[in-house]
Amino acid sequence: MNLSYLFDAAHWSLTDDGSIPQLILSHVWYVVLALIIGTIIALPVGLYIGHTGRGSFLAINAGNAGRSLPTLGLLMLMVTLLGLGLTPVLIALTVLVIPPILTSAYAGMRTLDHRVVDAARGMGMRPSQVLFKVELPMALPVMMSGFRSAALQVVATATVAAAVGLNGLGRLLIDGLAVNDYSRVLAGAIVVAVLAVVLDLILALAQRWIVSPGLR
Amino acid sequence: MLRTRIAGVLAAGVTLALTLSACGANDDPLSNEPAGGSSASTSTVTIGSANFAESELLGEIYAQALEAKGVTVKRQFNIGARELYLKALQDGSIDLLPEYNGALLSALAKGGAPEGVSSPDQVLTELKKVLPAGTEVLEQSAAEDKDTLTVTSATAAKYSLKTIEDLKPVANQLTIGAGPEWQERYQGLKGLESLYGIKFKTFKPLDAGGPLTVNALTKGQIDVGNIFSTDSSIATNKFVVLEDPKNLYLAENIIPLIRTAANNPTVSGALNAVSAKLTTENLTTYLAKVQVDKQDTAAVAKAFLTENGLV
């Protein structure tokens, strides 16, 4: 096992199909789509439950059940039902990102200092103002940590897309195993790990930028 | 707060680097036995198989046939493609494999199988010349399972396809699906291009003649699929198997490949008796019990051995 595949310039061409940059691009594409869809589904639900306190039992348990679903098994099931393509992969990855986003949105809202919320109400803020001007900004650090853990999980897990004929960095792992090229498998593992670290750093910077200075 | 996070990320990176360098120390992830451990006990035969149902069924048939003769057997099935399991055989992680004579010859002979070699006996003669040191083959069976290029009857009618040659003018519009190893194998895309001059529009890396490929073919997501000739899904779905006039795919008789160190008269006797009873027809029938009726591989193997008086 060595690093020859990773450091071969031929594998870094920007235009060749299956080159590392192209695989990174498709990998990031799956990750971003899954995070967007997952956030659209999980964030409003988490905020609603956290704000009202209603349905928390259901949300937490559904979230935990979602966490325990094996992504590869779910993916194979979806492929059997829907056929090949991006949809089954996105469904499997979205199910993976929903629990951390949902539970952290809920937890962020529930762990607020209630005196601050009461003070906001006492100042005459409407419920929507309380939500968007007080609760949401204060819950952001916890919510962002959930989003970041969702992002890290999905970067690593998006490699399963290659098991059903799609691209992404899993191609290096699966093709490398199929033709006994461990140098390629190692290259895939390293690029996925580096991608995860880079993504987490970007999100850390984004968090610093969007979280109010008073809460840091 | 941000600073501690970055420190955490860096720490994770360092841990990863350490883990990876630890991986490098042992070059072969398949050999989890301590050095010399497997050859010391000659009474245990470790049987491997490729990652598709038929290979696993054959491995199980070998295993039960040996167990019936009092040989201790360890099962190490579903290893992967030939590129992977041959290495496992050579380093002693496994002792015995069900193989296909033609595919094995093409994999071992430099530059692929020699021209003019296609009948089972010719293939066997050539194969014996190129076997890796320390390995041997036992008697080959009459049962054959070839790689095929298979299309749906609708595709065959649309482009009037009967042989692989008919694909040449239309291949640039078609998508082919096969195991990922096809990209780099002579009896895959390379041979199709050099022997038939066929280049497909896209290659979809799926599984080796497994459910993904069959599913993609029936749903029209691939036009041409690599399916094995004993696969009952061909008849079930009324697929058309394209003829191979230039013999890209050679004879593919099933043959036990064994490490010489693990071979003895009891082992070879039991396996040769299995080979004598295996035919393409009975293999197709028993494989359908696994693939279509979803029966347990071990139970199907037992039924085969019982019916043929081998246990």
TrEMBL record, chain A:
Q: Which domain of life is it from?
A: Bacteria
Question: Which InterPro entries does the entry link to?
Answer: ABC_transp_perm/SBD (IPR051204), MetI-like (IPR000515), MetI-like_sf (IPR035906)
Q: Which PROSITE patterns match?
A: ABC_TM1 (PS50928)
Q: Classify the protein's membrane topology as the record does.
A: Multi-pass membrane protein
Cellular compartments per GO CC: plasma membrane
Keywords for the protein's UniProt record, in alphabetical order: Membrane, Transmembrane, Transmembrane helix, Transport
Q: In this record, what's one Pfam family?
A: BPD_transp_1
TM spans, by residue? Answer: 28-50, 71-102, 150-174, 186-210
Q: Where in the cell is it found?
A: Cell membrane; Membrane
ABC transmembrane type-1 domain location is 24-203
Assign the protein's first listed, main location to one coarse class.
membrane
One GO BP annotation of this record: transmembrane transport
In which family does this protein belong, per the annotation?
Belongs to the binding-protein-dependent transport system permease family.
Identification of the protein by name: Glycine/betaine ABC transporter permease
From TrEMBL, chain B:
Give the GO molecular function terms: transmembrane transporter activity
> What does the UniProt keyword field contain?
Signal
Q: Does the keyword Signal feature in the UniProt annotation?
A: yes
The UniProt entry's GO CC annotations, sorted and at most eight, read: ATP-binding cassette (ABC) transporter complex
Signal peptide location in the record? 1-24
Residue ranges constituting the ABC-type glycine betaine transport system substrate-binding domain according to the UniProt record: 44-307
Which PROSITE patterns has this protein been placed in? PROKAR_LIPOPROTEIN
List the Pfam families hit by this protein, alphabetically: OpuAC
For this entry, the protein name equals: Glycine/betaine ABC transporter substrate-binding protein
Its source organism is Paractinoplanes toevensis
